[in-house]
Each structure stands twice: as C-alpha cells, then as structure tokens.
Amino acid sequence: MGAQVRIEPWAEGDLELLRRANAPAMMRHLGGPETEEQLLVRHERYLASGSEGGGMFSIVLLPEGVPAGSIGYWEKSWRGGTVYETGWGVLPEFQGLGVAAAAGEAVIARAAAEKGPRFLHAFPKVDNHPSNAICRKLGFTLVEECDFEYPPGHPIRCNDWRLELYVP
Predict the structure, then answer these.
(1) Which of 46, 57, 76, 97 is most buried by its number of CB atoms within 10 A?
(2) Which region is the signal sequence (predicted)?
(3) pLDDT per position in the chain (168 positions), as tens?
(4) What is the DSSP letter of 125?
(5) Whole-prediction pTM value?
(6) Positive or negative CA dihedral for 28, 18, 100, 141?
(7) Which residue ranges form the domains of the chain, and what is each CATH number?
C-alpha cells in the first residue's frame, strides 16, 4: 500500500499534532475547527483511551519518525449490538501517500487480535471521497447510507462501512 507507518498510543506530546490537524481543510467533514478548550478536552479523552477495547494513536511515518496523523478505534453501540468504530486523519502534506491505509491495516490487526467486537465500522461522510476510498482499499463492505449527528447537533449523511475482524 506504499507508506510505512507505526501507530503509537496517544501521548502527552501529541497535543501539537491535534492542533495541526485542527485546520479547516482537515475538519471540514467533522463540523469545522474546534476551539483550544475543545482541543484540550479531546486530548485528555485521547490520553485516557489507551486500554483494551480500542484507543487513539498517532501515526508515525517511517523511517523518518515524523507524526503524520491520528487514527483510533473504540467500542460503539450500533444496530442492537456492540461494534468497533474507527476514524482517522492524515495531515495534508502526507495525504495521497498511503499513510491512512497503512495505519488502517495496523488498527485492523490490533482490533482483530483483541477478539472483542466481531465487526469494525467506519462512518465517513458520503462526500468524503478519500476516506470512502480508503475503506474500499482496506476491504470494508459498504452496508448503507445513514444519518449521524457529528458533532452533536450537526446532522450529516454518512456511509456505513463494515469489516469482519474474525470469524467466531
């Protein structure tokens, strides 16, 4: 898939990465940039997420060792069951190089190894063509279009992509 990456559990020093990712171009599918206060709350939530059942990770481009974005997965109640949900963001200067797909492969392997929820879902906006293409590239199956609120109070139309992590 191209890029070589490593995913590392979210750390205190990743706040600057979160600030860099808060640019209008990166946040246009997620309700727009957040305030500094909202970023600090998000950073604390990411720091607390690193246990079984998912977590947030920085994406480190190899061999340079530079932060290229973030990716995570977490448990979500969905359609009467529990699934994992995943989401990612790659800084503009690293987009189009296969970084998100390589990080997605790492998250899929990690989530599958946990033997938690059987399915991993991604919910990119219908018009977020790059993220939808990454879902296809990673082997997700398009289930349906669905309505979400993200951020809360902001209705959006998403694709529900699903990947089976393991066969029970």
Answers:
(1) 57
(2) none
(3) 478 999 999 999 999 999 999 887 777 767 677 888 988 998 999 999 876 678 999 999 999 999 999 999 999 999 999 999 999 999 999 999 999 999 999 999 999 999 899 999 999 999 999 999 999 999 999 999 999 887 778 888 999 999 999 988
(4) B
(5) 0.91
(6) negative
(7) 4-164 (3.40.630.30)
